[in-house]
């Protein structure tokens, strides 16, 4: 729909941002807003048909802004705003080459995604998918309570009393993070009250030889130890070490070619048999076939994934959906009422600031 104004600043909004946010655009008479009119993903053909002459484009995750879009938009394009923290769907280099600004929505979703990461760790470890399915398909009557029925590894560190009863219960817990940015650190904050005392993390190996990056990590470790006095250790380690040491591994790094299949067969083979893997970042980071194989062959206990490579084309016959020890969610990490409203507002504000040459609240540099 277009507001049919005679202004020249055309803004293409590839997803309706809702009644609380769209007025931010409508109240600016200089803007001519063209919005994808359906409550389903914007069709590429519609986007390509509408971008010529646009000054701004608003997209969500999964709507690629590449050279084709930039060329079609033409010289009027000043800003692209995505309602997401991830920007692997945006060709940032191509935007920069043309001096086009880009906005994104970090920080507002950190808590929601960290919450979900914990939920997935719990769901996966405690056999959530399998047991919910059993109840929903009416099979509970066939399963009376049994001493070791549906047991899974405990996320929280067993208490001193519990571990004093038998040498087979370890009280120490290590959490591993592949990518350790805002969301990883917020996930750690939630794990500390679970009694997690040790942390290992893995980041881009390009940092290994960068003294500034190494200094930054040292500072971060010091700061986290101060913030969480019960932490006993926190180390940046190799991927193989992380796999070996972690009771739970959180994959929370950006997508893109550099991180594709960072969790592969080799990594999964090194994991602890009782460990849980959580991916709440991008599906491309985990090799789905390798994970399905690893779960079948019990190289790890279970996995919880909010993202899957190739999504949303993930049917009930997908290798991970078919694995009883894999909890699969349809990319809902940031889907709280509060967070999505915040993301949409930020996306609109970024766009408007970009169009009017103002400081964007969250600009991708
Ligand atoms: C993001 O913001 O990048 C998420 O993946 C979408 O919620």
TrEMBL record:
Entries under CDD domains matching the protein: GDH
One Pfam family from the record: 2-Hacid_dh
Protein family (similarity comment): Belongs to the D-isomer specific 2-hydroxyacid dehydrogenase family.
Domain D-isomer specific 2-hydroxyacid dehydrogenase catalytic: 11-360
Entries under InterPro entries matching the protein: D-isomer_2-hydroxyacid_DH (IPR050223), D-isomer_2_OHA_DH_cat_dom (IPR006139), D-isomer_DH_CS (IPR029753), D-isomer_DH_NAD-bd (IPR006140), NAD(P)-bd_dom_sf (IPR036291)
Lineage summary: Eukaryota, Fungi, Dikarya, Basidiomycota, Agaricomycotina
Residue ranges annotated for the D-isomer specific 2-hydroxyacid dehydrogenase NAD-binding domain, each copy included: 119-333
Keywords, comma-separated and alphabetical: Oxidoreductase
Protein name: Glycerate dehydrogenase
UniProt xrefs under SUPFAM superfamilies: Formate/glycerate dehydrogenase catalytic domain-like (SSF52283), NAD(P)-binding Rossmann-fold domains (SSF51735)
PANTHER family: 2-HYDROXYACID DEHYDROGENASE-RELATED, GLYOXYLATE REDUCTASE_HYDROXYPYRUVATE REDUCTASE
């Amino acid at each position: 729909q277009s507001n049919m104004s005679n202004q020249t600043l055309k803004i293409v909004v590839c997803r309706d941002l809702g009644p609380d946010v769209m007025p931010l655009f409508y109240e600016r008479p200089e803007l001519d807003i063209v919005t994808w009119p359906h409550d389903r993903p914007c069709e590429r053909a519609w986007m390509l048909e509408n971008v010529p002459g646009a000054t701004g484009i608003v997209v969500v995750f999964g709507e690629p802004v590449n050279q084709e879009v930039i060329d079609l938009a033409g010289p009027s394009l000043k800003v692209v705003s995505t309602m997401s923290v991830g920007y692997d769907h945006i060709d940032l280099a191509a935007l920069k080459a043309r001096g086009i600004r880009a906005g994104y929505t970090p920080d507002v979703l950190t808590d929601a995604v960290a919450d979900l990461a914990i939920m997935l760790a719990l769901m996966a470890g405690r056999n959530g998918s399998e047991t919910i399915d059993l109840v929903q398909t009416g099979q509970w009557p066939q399963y009376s309570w049994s001493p070791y029925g549906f047991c899974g590894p405990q996320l929280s560190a067993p208490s001193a009393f519990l571990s004093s009863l038998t040498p087979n219960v370890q009280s120490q817990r290590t959490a591993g993070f592949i990518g350790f940015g805002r969301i990883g650190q917020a996930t750690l904050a939630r794990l500390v009250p679970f009694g997690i005392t040790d942390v290992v993390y893995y980041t881009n190996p390009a940092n290994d030889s960068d003294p500034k990056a190494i200094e930054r990590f040292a500072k971060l470790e010091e700061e986290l130890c101060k913030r969480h006095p019960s932490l006993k250790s926190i180390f940046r380690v190799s991927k193989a070490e992380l796999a070996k040491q972690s009771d739970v591994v959180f994959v929370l790094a950006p997508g893109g070619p550099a991180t594709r299949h960072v969790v592969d067969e080799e990594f999964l083979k090194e994991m602890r048999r009782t460990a849980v893997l959580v991916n709440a970042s991008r599906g491309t980071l985990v090799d789905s076939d390798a994970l399905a194989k690893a779960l079948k062959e019990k190289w790890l206990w279970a996995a919880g994934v909010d993202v899957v490579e190739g999504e949303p084309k993930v049917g009930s016959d997908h290798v991970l959906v078919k694995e009883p020890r894999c909890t699969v969610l349809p990319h809902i990490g940031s889907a709280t009422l509060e967070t999505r409203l915040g993301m949409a507002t930020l996306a609109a504000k970024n766009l408007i600031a970009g169009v009017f040459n103002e400081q964007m609240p969250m600009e991708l540099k």
